[in-house]
Amino acid sequence: MAGVVHVLPHLGGKDGLGYYACTVLTADDRDEKTIDPPRSSSYFRLVLVYKYTRCGFTAFRSYSSEEGSWSEEAKVTNARLGNIQMGLTDDSLTHNGVVGYGGRLVYWLSKNVVFVLCLATLQSTVVSMPRSGNGQTFDMLNTLMGLSPNGMLCAIQLDRMSLRPANRRVPIRVTTCTDHSWWDTEELIQVEQSLPEDVGNVRLRWFCEKSGAVFFSTISGSNPLRSEMYVLNLETRVVDKLVSDDRNSNPWAYVHGYEMDQTAYLASLAEPEGMEDM
Predict the structure, then answer these.
(1) N vs C: which end of the chain shows fewer Cβ within 10 Å?
(2) pLDDT the model gives residue 104
(3) Single pTM value for the model
(4) Domain residues for 146?
(5) 92 and 173 share a domain?
(6) Per-residue pLDDT reduced to its tens digit, 86-115
(7) 111 and 167 in one domain?
(8) Residue 110, beta-bridge partner list
(9) Are 147 and 154 in contact (CB under 8 A)?
């Protein structure tokens, strides 16, 4: 794949960051209510929330590709997160957020809550995540967040499941927000019929919201273990197995799912000019 690398101005010294989370807004995030749409289709805006350990408040800055510079620091008001939730551990605030409402809201998953930031007012809200009944640690490893086809925030989770052969049940739960309530509608999709009989572990991996695809992995068998990757189409409820690996290791530990449209995919296959001379 080829692309353009943007080197952003350094934030250091008195502007040094502590714990942080960020996400990128693009021209594709705008909608019909966008007041000041970007001038270029290649526009991006990096938004950053971070916490000063010495001051204890949550701050905000953003970098715009159109301006070519960082914004002034501003204070995030209303809700706040503690050091553990803003930390860089497995159960902390994720660096990649979900952009909704035409680029006006950003959602970050943190432990068992969602940190919601309004970019226009810099007011924040903390909302509890749905519980699966499998325990908080399990939920933190098996919760994905994204937008539904109608643009509403949704949570993809493994519901209470059983891997016993006599009573095997592996439901994927989709809980969606509405304009009236958080986590208002719930749907269960059973996937156990697509899994091997000797499955011993299931874990959610990635949610590609534009295509409605949920990726999850399994570990099955013994001596050697088999690790397999599956994809669930939320619209058709069809499960397909993508790949199987027989190594006694986790082949997905350093893999991250990435979604692109067909035009971008075909462009990535084109060899850049001068590449043959490199």
Answers:
(1) C
(2) 92
(3) 0.84
(4) 130-254
(5) no
(6) 554 344 445 578 999 989 999 998 878 899
(7) no
(8) 93, 113
(9) yes
